[in-house]
Design goal:
Layout lengths: L2 E11 L4 E4 L2 H12 L2 H4 L1 E6 L6 H14 L5 E2 L11 E4 L2 E11 L6 H11 L13 E8 L2 E9 L6 H15 L12 H8 L2 H20 L15 E10 H14 L3 H17 L3 E8 L5 H4 L7 E8 L5 H17 L5 H15 L7 E5 L23 E10 L3 E7 L4 E7 L6 H20 L7 H5 L11 E3 L2 E3 L1 H11 L5 E5 L11 E6 L7 H9 L13 E5 L17 E5 L7
Parallel strand pairs: 6-7, 12-14, 19-20
Antiparallel strand pairs: 1-6, 2-5, 3-8, 4-5, 7-8, 9-13, 9-15, 10-11, 14-15, 16-17, 18-19, 20-21
């Protein structure tokens, strides 16, 4: 397979030059772009070119989209403080490049080849202040275009936006006349977000997130083996007619929406496997539920943060709670990302925790049919009864990520699971267990106490050194080790305090043998906080007690409590 790459520069002119503030969605994604590796945050898509399409026609249609949509003509000037850009600039004219990739002939699986090109294009960073936000390759065989493989900047596009572009591009190739754009532009949305009503909504979203981050588990997978913040993660793909039939059966029996049923089953199984009484999961939402945003070419995706309490007797009871909890999460999914992360920093410092976006559930099957992602096209019936296959690896800052591509007539999921917690066989068993849970719930209500029996998925086993502290699973010896290392090797003992009797959970007290250079509680807390990311079994003590010397080697650990106290405190003074 020989190929002849050629770069083409495409000029454009038209539209209005404008500038103004960034949207909350743009600020959210740009923050991720500045923090994460490009392959983690850039997105991609593949468009199949209709037969008989000429190369110049395909390019002209792309040019028309650039003129039509302000997002494709947008850059973000660098701010003076090198933080998240506060302004976006829309050009009225300019140029972009694309790669013409002509082959003598395409591989047998040409679609998979185009997909690999699009994925590879995600590896390079987009320069927000100057780059065209689409990285496009036009893949041809003997001069005949077959696919557009593209990577896109998440600063101006999301899955829904790429689907709008694909649909309009195909319409232009078919000779259709596109109606005027009526959806909100990024600048139009930014102006709306600055209104008093939207400012109040954003503040309410921050309050919703803060309640969960203060009271929920700091990480879903606080257990042996859970380490690091960026993990190379293999994926497993499930395609199952059984799963789709069972999902439909549960919806029919209970009257629940299929999407809500699937989310309920997912949360129940995740919390069961993690040994948690609540499931905290990020549920990315396209925020395209308003008619003016449905077809907006913009990045509208933000996280809805769901906290679902599993302390109920059965699946049906949990399903009844999920709809309201999910709706509440979606209502609070438009927020000022900079203010959100300032709140998270303040809240976690005060709590002594590290918020971990451990679990992500992204149901793109619920997008309007016209905006369904073409990257995972529907599979024709009959399809497999239950098939598990290997998908692409990704480096991810999560422990468990799933995409729901399709729910009917096949249940089609992609799962990325931290291999330290879910070896390949366990990841596959988890997906099979999900199907089994749906099948059982299609027949009758399922007691949550029987999840191991019904699904074959076992809760994690934690040793006797683990305890629930402030709503989180914690290993006090690991806390002591982390604090000792953070303080240069000073001897540390961490004790689990008894509950106060008024409903409070037990807390931790750290005893630090200071020697001749005693640290303050504030210094000890600040030092420990720097070590928390990537260590979900470590939670900061509620109280730091500084003593002169440690007990002798032959003394019991309780002797720490009788050492002379030099100073003590919560350590929650803000760091300088």
């Amino acid at each position: 397979m020989s190929r002849r790459p050629r770069t083409v520069t495409v000029p454009y002119t038209g539209g209005e030059a404008r500038r103004g503030p960034v949207t909350m969605g743009q600020a959210n994604m740009i923050r991720c772009i500045l923090r994460d590796e490009p392959v983690q945050i850039n997105i991609h898509d593949v468009w199949q070119v209709p037969a008989e399409t000429r190369t110049d026609t395909a390019i002209d249609a792309l040019r028309a989209l650039v003129v039509r949509h302000e997002a494709l003509r947008t850059t973000f000037p660098d701010p003076p403080d090198e933080g998240v850009p506060r302004e976006q600039v829309v050009a009225s004219e300019g140029e972009f490049t694309l790669t013409l990739l002509d082959h003598d002939e395409l591989p047998a699986d040409a679609a998979a080849y185009a997909e690999s090109l699009a994925r590879a294009a995600r590896a390079d960073r987009f320069h927000l202040d100057r780059d065209f936000p689409l990285r496009v390759s036009l893949v041809s065989a003997a001069g005949a275009p077959a696919f557009v493989a593209l990577a896109a900047s998440h600063a101006v596009t999301d899955v829904g936006a790429l689907a709008v572009l694909r649909e309009e591009w195909l319409a232009l190739l078919a000779g259709a006349h596109l109606p005027d754009v009526t959806a909100l532009t990024p600048l139009g949305l930014a102006a709306e977000e600055a209104t008093p009503a939207d400012v109040r909504k954003s503040r309410a979203s921050l309050a919703h997130w803060e309640r969960i981050i203060r009271g929920g588990p700091q990480a879903m997978f606080a257990e042996p083996g859970a380490e690091g913040t960026d993990v190379k993660t293999p994926s497993v793909v499930l395609r199952s007619r059984r799963g789709a039939r069972a999902l439909a059966g549960v919806a029919e029996r209970t009257g629940g929406l299929p999407a809500t049923v699937l989310l309920t089953a997912w949360c129940a199984l995740v919390a069961h496997r993690a040994g948690q009484t609540a499931c905290v999961t990020a549920v990315p939402t396209s925020n395209r539920y308003e008619p003016r945003l449905t077809r907006s070419v913009n990045t509208l995706s933000q996280d809805a943060l769901l906290c679902l309490d599993l302390r109920v007797p059965s699946f049906d009871t949990l399903l009844g709670k999920t709809w309201g909890a999910a709706l509440n999460a979606y209502r609070h999914s438009r927020f000022d990302a900079v203010a959100l992360w300032e709140m998270i920093g303040r809240t976690t410092f005060e709590r002594g925790s590290a918020f971990a976006r451990d679990v992500v559930f992204n149901d793109v099957s619920t997008l309007p049919a016209s905006l369904a992602s073409p990257s995972a096209p529907p599979v024709a019936e009959p399809g497999p009864d239950l098939e598990l296959s290997r998908g692409p690896d990704q480096v991810l800052p999560t422990r468990l990520l799933t995409f729901v591509h399709q729910a009917d007539p096949l249940l089609h999921l992609s799962l990325w699971a931290d291999p330290a917690l879910f070896p390949r066989a366990e990841a596959e068993a988890f997906l099979t267990g999900l199907v089994r849970l749906l099948e059982a719930a299609a027949d009758a209500d399922v007691p949550l106490a029987r999840l191991t029996e019904v699904t074959g998925v076992h809760p994690v086993e934690r040793g006797p050194d683990w305890s629930v502290v402030d709503g989180s699973w914690v290993s006090p010896p690991a806390v002591a080790d982390a604090l000792s290392r953070a303080l240069g090797g000073l001897p540390v003992h961490v004790a689990l305090d008894a509950p106060s009797g008024d409903g409070d959970q037990p807390g931790l007290t750290a005893y630090i043998a200071a020697g001749d250079s005693p640290p303050t509680p504030a210094r000890a807390h600040a030092a420990l906080m720097k070590t928390l990311p990537g260590r979900p079994g470590v939670l900061a003590p509620r109280r730091y007690v500084i003593v002169q010397d440690p007990p002798g080697d032959t003394e019991p650990s309780s002797a720490w409590l009788r050492r002379r106290t030099l100073m003590e405190g919560t350590g929650r003074d803000r760091p300088m």
